[in-house]
Amino acid sequence: MRAVQLTELSGPRTGLRVVDVPEPGPGDLAMPGEAVAIDVHAAGVSFPEVLQARGRYQIKPELPFVPGSEVAGVVRSAPDGCRVRAGDRVAGFCLLGGFAEVAVAPSYFTFPLNDALDFGQGAALILNYHTAHFALVTRGRLKAGETVLVHGAAGGIGTATLQVAKGLGARTIAVVSSDQKERMAREAGADHVLRSEGPWKDECRELGGADIVIDPVGGDRFTDSLRSLRPYGRAVVVGFTAGAIPEVRVNRLLLTNTEVVGAGWGEAAGEEPEYLAQTAQELERLIESGFVRPIVGARFPLERAADALELIESREALGKVVLDVR
Questions:
Q1: Which CATH superfamily is domain 128-266 in?
Q2: Could you read off the pLDDT of 58-98 as tens digits, one per residue?
Q3: Where are the domains of the chain?
Q4: What are the C-alpha distances in Å from 203 to residues 184, 198, 229, 237?
Q5: Burial of residue 160, with CB atoms counted within 10 A of its CB: 0-12 exposed, 13-18 middle, 19 or more buried
Q6: CA–CA gap between residue 95 and residue 64 (Å, rounded)
């Protein structure tokens, strides 16, 4: 089968190769569990793959390996008693091996794909939407009627967070850097859009402030995120795509009764696989009600995986970046 391998940790352009490799079997699962074999139609591309290509991610498989954590396609085979069976359309999280024509995912990380979504949207579903739900509900303790401010609001996690927040009854404020990204954020359901280069903190406060800030960006803006919170507000840390890890002056938290909360969905998912099924059910409800519709931006053939990763690394990606495998 065709696959994209990472052969050296020199970045996407020089480190990736399209190769022919044997199809994976149950023993090739990157996580514990029973294996579901999936004929991959689309694979999601995310920031962790960028970090892997430069040797900066916490998961460091032995080279060479096939990256890619999210896939959507058709089940080739599944273990007895699994919620999916051969021929079903599914979305799966495989951690590694997704940039290939066939992938294996654990049964507890493979979910039926709603007919309202195509394969590209299915490949955008698990990592971003489960992360958004975990950040908003489990870690952010979102209540209907609260206000959520989202940084990086035109990207994959940003658009997912806006859609999930709207589906849960929140008012949403998006922070973006361009007209094009503003259009994307509004498509995802932003009630208000602020510019990251402008006085967004002051503008947020003029809108009444935020109960929750979802921040996958990090960097210098984090202090202003804290200043934009209402009393008892929560700043939820999802990632650091800006590269810099901010520091917090904890006296500000004391004076304003605010919190900084980490949202490490991957860690929680690995420890509590039953939580995944519950989240999938809640997201299915939001799909059925029309709130969740993953926004797929750039689509690349498998052979252009390096272009896909470089687009994400440039921070110019809109919505979810996807590889069309079939």
A1: NAD(P)-binding Rossmann-like Domain (3.40.50.720)
A2: 889 999 999 999 999 999 999 998 999 999 999 999 999 99
A3: 2-125+294-324, 128-266
A4: 20, 9, 12, 21
A5: buried
A6: 15
Locate 202 and state its tokens: 């002051």
Tens-digit pLDDT profile for residues 27-65: 999 988 999 999 999 999 998 999 999 999 888 999 999
Would you state the CATH architecture of domain 2-125+294-324?
Answer: Alpha-Beta Complex (3.90)
Neighbours of 154 (CB within 10 A): 31
28-67: b (≥16 Cβ within 10 Å) or e: bbbbebbbbbbbbbbbbbbbbbbbbbeeebeeeeeeebbb
Place of tokens 């995310």: 46
pTM (two decimals): 0.93
